[in-house]
């Protein structure tokens, strides 16, 4: 019997719904098939996003601020829809079906984008840059472009929410050998994502600029299609996990129960609150957010049948452990809120920084660097920073402090500092670029100043992402309840989404306020006539303010990292406020 157990994975099923055979399912090969989908998703999404601003300005003839907002809204929606994908995977479809459905949607989106960029009827007539007679894309043309972009965003959101989780499902955490393989999977997962991004910002962007956008977008669509067939080929070898329900529903249940009982008084003894979680899985009561404790007060009507000790209605009564899980998520929110501004800074690297590059000298001999490919320095900074941190900083820190590297909160702080400094450096670089534009000709689209002036800002913000991304992921996973890891990952991804949306909001406000007197304003249609340096300077100031707030929140959070031990809730029979014995 013991040997039979070792051949199956206890909490996993095969494609027929039977317990998964360890020798026939899971492991590296199925994980690699899943990884192929994510590589192609990165290739498509980043290959489109990093060079989209030049397409909107150069082909669709849109103003620079409008182009930047379209890009940031697109990227923001990609990450926001991760919540939808996660909810569908947890509650209805499961991860396998979610990946399959949303991969097909992304393939359709990239295919449609290839068609819209190819057909002359779906773009305005060509003209010289900044020509006053240029016609902007009309409503129908923009509508078709939006449809393609948001199909891609929908596909990306659904994929990102499930790919990493389905990949880890292929390894058994209870088996030491497979657990070590899972650790390597995470490392290689991030590595291959970076490879996909590097390919996107170099090869794919070059094809877009020098050969044709429709061909480049067509390559994205075909690569996704091939990845889907490869993904389906592993159907019989995958391990499938049972869904435990959506954490979002659990959170709403606690909130609804607490609101329903808002007028009730909490008992003097917390052990009188309802608890039905097994002892080994319980989370002990804490004093923060005491309003939520009211969800665990037993009241008349909470049980369908008191005489048979039936399960309580979860929208009326929740266990202490379920309430504490929601409290744990609530404690993450201040850190969550203070990391949004970083991704607002990040958004400038794929919008205005690319526009800056398009006006500068990008020649190396006879080779012209595509403006969108400048983000290669951004990706390189991430990889270099991770390598230095892993091989140099972590060993030294362990020898000095006895700890294996910086804590998650420390890494987030370092990322915020680097991004703020990066915006300061970007301000100085833009001041230099504008002085050259003023001395030569503001209408010039090729200023005599090297594009490599922008490298420091790409490197600083890229290094900041290396710290803040890993710090956020570590923080939100390790500090969240066991049953809400997927939810906390989705919460982390919403910081990226909101960062892009905040960027769009700031651009719109700055555009309206600074051009209210009929002038060009900070964000002029032609950035040579604007004051992008002032906008970057504003982001640097906001970064400093945000950093101070973050440090306050981080200090506030520290006491909750190691809560004082409290006596376990032991009694199976407890009492409600009237002294009646209950189940």
From TrEMBL:
Transmembrane feature ranges: 43-62, 74-92, 99-116, 145-168, 189-208, 214-232, 332-349, 369-389, 409-429, 449-469, 490-510, 535-557
A Gene Ontology molecular function term of the record: transmembrane transporter activity
GO biological process, one term: oligopeptide transport
Family assignment from sequence similarity: Belongs to the major facilitator superfamily. Proton-dependent oligopeptide transporter (POT/PTR) (TC 2.A.17) family.
Name of the protein: Protein NRT1/ PTR FAMILY 6.2
Gene: LOC105173496
Major location category of this protein: membrane
Keywords for this protein: Membrane, Transmembrane, Transmembrane helix
